[in-house]
Design brief:
about 375 residues, Nucleotidyltransferase, domain 5, 2 domains, five-stranded mixed sheet, 14 helices, about 35% helix
Length: about 375
Amino acid sequence: MRVLGLMSGTSADGVDAVLASFHGAVRRPRWRLLASAFSPYPDPLRRELIAVGQGETRSTEALLRLAEQVTESQATAARACDPAGSAALVGCHGQTVWHRPPSAGQRGASWQLLQGPLLARLLERPVVFDFRAADLALGGQGAPLVPPCDAALLGRIGGWRGVLNLGGIANLTLIPPAAGPDRAQPVRGWDCGPANSLLDLAVQRFTNNGQNHDADGAWALRGRVCEDLVQRWLQEPYLQEQPPKSTGRELFGRADLNRRWSALAAVGAEPADALATLAAFSAAAVAQELARGPCPVELLVAGGGARNGALMQQLRGRCTGMAVRPLAELGIADSQRESLAFALLAWWHWRRLRAPTPAVTGAERPPLLGVCAWP
């Protein structure tokens, strides 16, 4: 079956699309990547999504218009990836604008902007969307949902295998080994902390919105790391929590950057030093999470942060005892991993497979993820 996967993450830079085929065993399918495309959000839409994602208030009319624009952008990406309309099914995550993990006395909730029925009508194909709600209803975090997909798509090796996505937020998958005493362990995964969210906001601040990101990490590579600040930040509550856990711009957004910039300015940090320190902080948070164990023998890195030289340099220096290499070496490009995962999640929904997320999210039982809209 041919399935389109559409994903836009916390960076809100646009929509990644893949066209993939799945067949065979449902839990471990044979799959092939047929095409991929990236459709950037227009700058005004991107700025508005980031603003709303950081808690800025908007009228209900403005939010409705924003949801329509996001839906139309998803359709544009789908058509760019599959112009012949060969996919029988579409899996679309939508654009997260707010995520509230469950806490004592309060259930979790998460909002992904998307009009699923409209997207199904625009593409004239069934669309599976609203993936997080079923997991949240069962007491789970609702995120991350990709770790079981990593295990199904990549398979196992002789030791624990790690997959790290560096989008706006850094999230981690740990896949048990193929043999040995840990082979019966479940797949694990959680959000580590910020990856590009603070870095991108800092670049926008330093350039008065002239640039959206530090291309290749070149600016950060010219700076010095304020290690005392990194070590202090690692003691913050979220980074000390045990999994399952998830986060987003609600915690690591503009207000958080302002607080960190005050600390950086107090020690005389220049913009390059601030970027170097933020990159080091993101990498150190990942290393701290990996220290919880089990330690993987390799760490496959995906997402936009895999192209940031400063961030990758810091990861290799701090994540010791494992080979750190790009996921792209296995044939899945940085921008393809999550959209491919949502294509698989849509196929699982179609095949009525309940996703094995409880060990990742803390849900009471495996949920059937997603809601299907028909054209």
